[in-house]
Amino acid sequence: MRAQFVLSEIGVGLRRNLTMTFAVIISVALSLALFGASLLMSDQVGQMKGYWYDKVNVSIFLCNKGDAESDPNCAKGPVTAEQKDQILVDLKKLPVVDKVAHESQDDAYKHYKEQFGDSPLASSLTPDQLQESYRIKLKNPEKYQVIATAFNGRPGVQSVQDQKGVLDNLFRLLGYLNWAAGAVMAVMLVVALLLIVNTVRVSAFSRRRETGIMRLVGASGFYIQAPFIMEAAVAGLIGGGIACTILAGGQYFVIDNGVALSDKLQLINFIGWDAVLTKLPLILAVSVLMPALAAFVALRKYLKV
Protein backbone atom coordinates (compact mmCIF):
# COMPACT_ATOMS: atom_id res chain seq x y z
CA MET A 1 0.00 0.00 0.00
CA ARG A 2 2.77 2.41 0.90
CA ALA A 3 4.68 1.59 -2.28
CA GLN A 4 1.52 2.13 -4.34
CA PHE A 5 0.99 5.51 -2.67
CA VAL A 6 4.58 6.59 -3.32
CA LEU A 7 4.35 5.55 -6.99
CA SER A 8 1.04 7.38 -7.43
CA GLU A 9 2.56 10.51 -5.89
CA ILE A 10 5.51 10.31 -8.30
CA GLY A 11 3.11 10.27 -11.26
CA VAL A 12 1.12 13.19 -9.84
CA GLY A 13 4.27 15.24 -9.24
CA LEU A 14 5.65 14.66 -12.72
CA ARG A 15 2.35 15.63 -14.35
CA ARG A 16 1.88 18.75 -12.24
CA ASN A 17 5.28 20.17 -13.17
CA LEU A 18 5.46 18.83 -16.70
CA THR A 19 7.32 21.82 -18.17
CA MET A 20 9.96 21.94 -15.45
CA THR A 21 10.30 18.15 -15.52
CA PHE A 22 10.93 18.33 -19.26
CA ALA A 23 13.58 21.03 -18.69
CA VAL A 24 15.26 18.83 -16.04
CA ILE A 25 15.28 15.84 -18.41
CA ILE A 26 16.83 17.83 -21.26
CA SER A 27 19.46 19.52 -19.08
CA VAL A 28 20.44 16.22 -17.44
CA ALA A 29 20.59 14.53 -20.84
CA LEU A 30 22.83 17.21 -22.36
CA SER A 31 25.14 17.49 -19.35
CA LEU A 32 25.59 13.72 -19.04
CA ALA A 33 26.06 13.35 -22.80
CA LEU A 34 28.89 15.88 -22.54
CA PHE A 35 30.18 14.04 -19.47
CA GLY A 36 30.26 10.76 -21.39
CA ALA A 37 31.77 12.42 -24.45
CA SER A 38 34.50 13.93 -22.28
CA LEU A 39 35.34 10.50 -20.84
CA LEU A 40 35.37 8.96 -24.32
CA MET A 41 37.56 11.78 -25.62
CA SER A 42 40.08 11.04 -22.87
CA ASP A 43 40.05 7.36 -23.87
CA GLN A 44 40.44 8.33 -27.53
CA VAL A 45 43.42 10.58 -26.86
CA GLY A 46 45.04 7.89 -24.71
CA GLN A 47 44.52 5.26 -27.41
CA MET A 48 45.86 7.57 -30.12
CA LYS A 49 48.94 8.33 -28.01
CA GLY A 50 49.65 4.66 -27.54
CA TYR A 51 49.08 3.96 -31.24
CA TRP A 52 51.06 6.85 -32.71
CA TYR A 53 53.86 7.09 -30.18
CA ASP A 54 54.55 3.45 -30.93
CA LYS A 55 55.09 4.44 -34.57
CA VAL A 56 57.20 7.54 -33.89
CA ASN A 57 60.56 7.67 -35.64
CA VAL A 58 63.57 9.87 -35.07
CA SER A 59 65.18 10.84 -38.36
CA ILE A 60 68.86 11.70 -38.83
CA PHE A 61 69.14 13.56 -42.13
CA LEU A 62 72.55 13.39 -43.79
CA CYS A 63 74.22 16.16 -45.79
CA ASN A 64 74.04 16.08 -49.57
CA LYS A 65 75.82 18.24 -52.13
CA GLY A 66 73.16 20.96 -52.08
CA ASP A 67 73.32 21.20 -48.28
CA ALA A 68 77.09 21.63 -48.40
CA GLU A 69 76.59 24.95 -50.20
CA SER A 70 73.65 26.33 -48.19
CA ASP A 71 73.57 24.77 -44.70
CA PRO A 72 76.17 25.69 -42.03
CA ASN A 73 75.83 22.21 -40.51
CA CYS A 74 77.11 20.75 -43.79
CA ALA A 75 79.91 23.23 -44.41
CA LYS A 76 82.49 20.41 -44.45
CA GLY A 77 80.79 18.80 -47.45
CA PRO A 78 78.37 15.95 -48.08
CA VAL A 79 78.40 12.90 -45.87
CA THR A 80 81.05 10.29 -46.66
CA ALA A 81 80.70 6.52 -46.63
CA GLU A 82 82.93 6.31 -43.53
CA GLN A 83 80.78 8.85 -41.67
CA LYS A 84 77.60 6.96 -42.55
CA ASP A 85 79.08 3.67 -41.33
CA GLN A 86 80.24 5.27 -38.08
CA ILE A 87 76.81 6.84 -37.46
CA LEU A 88 75.17 3.44 -37.97
CA VAL A 89 77.63 1.72 -35.61
CA ASP A 90 77.10 4.36 -32.93
CA LEU A 91 73.31 4.15 -33.31
CA LYS A 92 73.29 0.40 -32.75
CA LYS A 93 75.34 0.84 -29.58
CA LEU A 94 72.71 3.06 -27.94
CA PRO A 95 70.41 1.11 -25.55
CA VAL A 96 67.41 3.35 -26.36
CA VAL A 97 67.45 2.33 -30.04
CA ASP A 98 65.13 -0.46 -31.10
CA LYS A 99 65.52 -0.51 -34.90
CA VAL A 100 67.45 1.46 -37.53
CA ALA A 101 66.42 1.73 -41.19
CA HIS A 102 68.40 3.49 -43.93
CA GLU A 103 66.57 5.56 -46.54
CA SER A 104 68.67 6.35 -49.59
CA GLN A 105 68.16 9.36 -51.85
CA ASP A 106 66.41 7.11 -54.39
CA ASP A 107 64.10 5.78 -51.66
CA ALA A 108 63.37 9.34 -50.48
CA TYR A 109 62.59 10.37 -54.07
CA LYS A 110 60.26 7.39 -54.51
CA HIS A 111 58.38 8.17 -51.28
CA TYR A 112 58.14 11.84 -52.23
CA LYS A 113 56.63 10.95 -55.62
CA GLU A 114 54.11 8.65 -53.94
CA GLN A 115 52.96 11.37 -51.55
CA PHE A 116 53.31 14.57 -53.63
CA GLY A 117 53.38 13.32 -57.21
CA ASP A 118 50.68 15.77 -58.28
CA SER A 119 52.51 18.87 -57.07
CA PRO A 120 54.33 21.10 -59.62
CA LEU A 121 57.58 20.74 -57.66
CA ALA A 122 57.64 16.95 -58.05
CA SER A 123 58.24 17.15 -61.81
CA SER A 124 61.40 19.25 -61.39
CA LEU A 125 62.85 17.34 -58.43
CA THR A 126 65.68 14.85 -58.83
CA PRO A 127 66.91 12.17 -56.34
CA ASP A 128 70.23 13.91 -55.69
CA GLN A 129 68.37 16.94 -54.31
CA LEU A 130 66.85 14.88 -51.50
CA GLN A 131 68.57 13.74 -48.33
CA GLU A 132 69.31 10.21 -47.33
CA SER A 133 68.57 9.48 -43.72
CA TYR A 134 68.49 6.99 -40.90
CA ARG A 135 65.04 6.32 -39.45
CA ILE A 136 65.32 5.21 -35.82
CA LYS A 137 62.62 3.42 -33.87
CA LEU A 138 63.11 4.06 -30.15
CA LYS A 139 62.22 1.68 -27.36
CA ASN A 140 60.86 4.70 -25.48
CA PRO A 141 59.73 7.69 -27.62
CA GLU A 142 60.41 10.01 -24.69
CA LYS A 143 64.16 9.40 -25.11
CA TYR A 144 64.46 11.42 -28.31
CA GLN A 145 66.87 13.86 -26.69
CA VAL A 146 69.48 11.08 -26.36
CA ILE A 147 69.66 10.82 -30.16
CA ALA A 148 69.61 14.59 -30.66
CA THR A 149 72.45 15.13 -28.19
CA ALA A 150 74.57 12.35 -29.65
CA PHE A 151 74.26 13.25 -33.34
CA ASN A 152 73.39 16.94 -33.75
CA GLY A 153 76.45 18.77 -35.07
CA ARG A 154 78.35 15.66 -36.09
CA PRO A 155 80.16 15.70 -39.44
CA GLY A 156 77.83 14.60 -42.19
CA VAL A 157 74.64 15.20 -40.17
CA GLN A 158 72.36 17.96 -41.43
CA SER A 159 69.70 17.69 -38.70
CA VAL A 160 67.96 15.36 -36.23
CA GLN A 161 64.18 15.52 -36.29
CA ASP A 162 61.65 13.98 -33.92
CA GLN A 163 58.13 13.22 -35.18
CA LYS A 164 56.90 13.18 -31.58
CA GLY A 165 56.99 16.98 -31.49
CA VAL A 166 54.28 17.17 -34.17
CA LEU A 167 52.14 14.63 -32.31
CA ASP A 168 52.58 16.47 -29.03
CA ASN A 169 51.05 19.61 -30.58
CA LEU A 170 48.09 17.57 -31.86
CA PHE A 171 47.48 15.90 -28.51
CA ARG A 172 47.83 19.22 -26.70
CA LEU A 173 45.08 20.64 -28.94
CA LEU A 174 42.87 17.62 -28.26
CA GLY A 175 43.52 18.07 -24.56
CA TYR A 176 42.37 21.70 -24.73
CA LEU A 177 39.21 20.63 -26.57
CA ASN A 178 38.57 18.03 -23.89
CA TRP A 179 38.97 20.65 -21.15
CA ALA A 180 36.56 22.93 -23.01
CA ALA A 181 34.00 20.11 -23.22
CA GLY A 182 34.49 19.49 -19.50
CA ALA A 183 33.87 23.16 -18.71
CA VAL A 184 30.64 23.18 -20.74
CA MET A 185 29.63 19.94 -19.01
CA ALA A 186 30.22 21.51 -15.57
CA VAL A 187 28.04 24.49 -16.47
CA MET A 188 25.29 22.18 -17.74
CA LEU A 189 25.45 20.11 -14.55
CA VAL A 190 25.04 23.24 -12.42
CA VAL A 191 22.05 24.27 -14.55
CA ALA A 192 20.56 20.78 -14.19
CA LEU A 193 21.03 20.83 -10.40
CA LEU A 194 19.40 24.26 -10.09
CA LEU A 195 16.44 23.10 -12.18
CA ILE A 196 16.10 19.98 -10.06
CA VAL A 197 16.14 21.98 -6.83
CA ASN A 198 13.55 24.47 -8.11
CA THR A 199 11.35 21.70 -9.50
CA VAL A 200 11.36 19.88 -6.16
CA ARG A 201 10.60 23.08 -4.26
CA VAL A 202 7.68 23.95 -6.56
CA SER A 203 6.36 20.40 -6.35
CA ALA A 204 6.57 20.36 -2.55
CA PHE A 205 4.94 23.78 -2.30
CA SER A 206 2.03 22.72 -4.52
CA ARG A 207 1.44 19.72 -2.22
CA ARG A 208 1.99 21.43 1.10
CA ARG A 209 -1.53 20.51 2.34
CA GLU A 210 -0.92 16.81 1.69
CA THR A 211 2.47 16.87 3.38
CA GLY A 212 0.99 18.78 6.34
CA ILE A 213 -1.70 16.15 6.80
CA MET A 214 0.91 13.38 6.55
CA ARG A 215 2.94 15.03 9.32
CA LEU A 216 -0.15 15.29 11.53
CA VAL A 217 -0.93 11.57 11.19
CA GLY A 218 2.66 10.68 12.13
CA ALA A 219 4.31 9.93 8.78
CA SER A 220 8.10 9.85 8.96
CA GLY A 221 10.21 12.54 7.30
CA PHE A 222 11.67 10.08 4.82
CA TYR A 223 8.24 8.75 3.86
CA ILE A 224 7.10 12.29 3.12
CA GLN A 225 10.26 13.10 1.15
CA ALA A 226 10.40 9.83 -0.81
CA PRO A 227 7.95 10.82 -3.62
CA PHE A 228 9.82 14.07 -4.28
CA ILE A 229 13.21 12.35 -4.30
CA MET A 230 11.97 9.60 -6.60
CA GLU A 231 10.37 12.14 -8.95
CA ALA A 232 13.77 13.77 -9.40
CA ALA A 233 15.43 10.35 -9.77
CA VAL A 234 12.94 9.26 -12.45
CA ALA A 235 13.38 12.48 -14.41
CA GLY A 236 17.15 12.11 -14.12
CA LEU A 237 17.00 8.47 -15.23
CA ILE A 238 15.05 9.46 -18.34
CA GLY A 239 17.67 12.14 -19.06
CA GLY A 240 20.44 9.58 -18.49
CA GLY A 241 18.75 7.19 -20.91
CA ILE A 242 18.65 9.94 -23.53
CA ALA A 243 22.35 10.69 -22.90
CA CYS A 244 23.24 7.01 -23.36
CA THR A 245 21.23 6.95 -26.59
CA ILE A 246 23.13 10.03 -27.85
CA LEU A 247 26.52 8.43 -27.11
CA ALA A 248 25.58 5.06 -28.60
CA GLY A 249 24.06 6.80 -31.63
CA GLY A 250 27.22 8.85 -32.09
CA GLN A 251 29.37 5.71 -32.04
CA TYR A 252 27.07 3.89 -34.47
CA PHE A 253 26.20 6.66 -36.92
CA VAL A 254 29.33 8.85 -36.79
CA ILE A 255 32.16 6.39 -36.17
CA ASP A 256 31.00 3.00 -37.48
CA ASN A 257 28.20 3.67 -40.00
CA GLY A 258 26.55 6.66 -41.65
CA VAL A 259 29.38 9.19 -41.64
CA ALA A 260 31.75 6.24 -41.00
CA LEU A 261 34.77 8.19 -39.80
CA SER A 262 36.57 4.94 -39.02
CA ASP A 263 36.65 4.22 -42.78
CA LYS A 264 37.34 7.78 -43.95
CA LEU A 265 40.04 8.55 -41.35
CA GLN A 266 42.01 5.34 -41.25
CA LEU A 267 45.02 7.13 -39.79
CA ILE A 268 43.07 7.48 -36.53
CA ASN A 269 42.66 4.42 -34.35
CA PHE A 270 39.13 5.06 -33.05
CA ILE A 271 37.88 3.62 -29.77
CA GLY A 272 35.38 0.77 -30.06
CA TRP A 273 32.07 -0.22 -28.52
CA ASP A 274 33.79 -1.66 -25.46
CA ALA A 275 34.84 1.85 -24.38
CA VAL A 276 31.33 3.21 -24.98
CA LEU A 277 29.51 0.39 -23.19
CA THR A 278 31.68 0.70 -20.09
CA LYS A 279 30.62 4.36 -19.72
CA LEU A 280 26.86 3.82 -20.01
CA PRO A 281 26.31 2.23 -16.55
CA LEU A 282 28.24 5.09 -14.95
CA ILE A 283 26.09 7.67 -16.76
CA LEU A 284 22.88 5.92 -15.68
CA ALA A 285 24.08 5.73 -12.07
CA VAL A 286 24.96 9.44 -12.03
CA SER A 287 21.63 10.30 -13.67
CA VAL A 288 19.77 8.69 -10.74
CA LEU A 289 22.02 9.66 -7.82
CA MET A 290 22.64 13.29 -8.77
CA PRO A 291 18.96 14.36 -8.93
CA ALA A 292 18.05 12.25 -5.90
CA LEU A 293 20.76 13.84 -3.76
CA ALA A 294 19.88 17.33 -5.04
CA ALA A 295 16.22 16.75 -4.15
CA PHE A 296 17.15 15.39 -0.70
CA VAL A 297 19.28 18.45 0.06
CA ALA A 298 16.64 20.85 -1.27
CA LEU A 299 13.92 19.33 0.88
CA ARG A 300 15.97 19.40 4.07
CA LYS A 301 17.58 22.80 3.57
CA TYR A 302 14.80 24.84 2.04
CA LEU A 303 11.48 23.18 2.85
CA LYS A 304 12.25 21.72 6.27
CA VAL A 305 9.85 18.88 5.60
Number of DSSP helical runs = 12
Shape: elongated
| Gyration radius, in Å | 31 Å
User: Biggest sheet: strands side by side, in what order?
Assistant: 2-3-1-4
* Low-confidence region ranges: none
Q: Largest beta sheet, briefly?
A: 4 strands, antiparallel
Q: Structural class of the secondary elements?
A: alpha+beta
Average predicted confidence as pLDDT: 78
| Residues in helix, % | over 70%
- Element pattern in H and E: HHEHHEHHEHEHHHHH
**Strand element count:** 4
- How much of the sequence lies in strands comes to 5-15%
First-last Cα distance: 22 Å
What labels would you give this structure?
12 helices, alpha+beta, 8% strand
Describe the structure concisely.
The protein has 305 residues and is an alpha+beta fold.
Describe what you observe in this structure.
Strands 2-3-1-4 form a four-stranded antiparallel sheet. With 305 residues, the protein is an alpha+beta fold. 28% of the residues are buried. Helix 1 crosses helix 10 (221-256) and helix 2 packs antiparallel against helix 12 (273-303). It is 71% helix and 8% strand. The chain contains twelve helices and four strands. The longest helix is centred in the middle third of the chain and has 43 residues, at 164-206. The radius of gyration is 31 Å and the shape is elongated.
Give the helices and strands, then pairings.
Elements: H1 2-16, H2 18-53, E1 57-62, H3 65-70, H4 81-93, E2 97-103, H5 105-116, H6 120-124, E3 133-138, H7 144-151, E4 157-162, H8 164-206, H9 208-216, H10 221-256, H11 261-264, H12 273-303
Antiparallel strand pairs: 1-3, 1-4, 2-3
Helix pairs in contact: 1-10, 2-8, 2-10, 2-12, 8-10, 8-12, 10-12
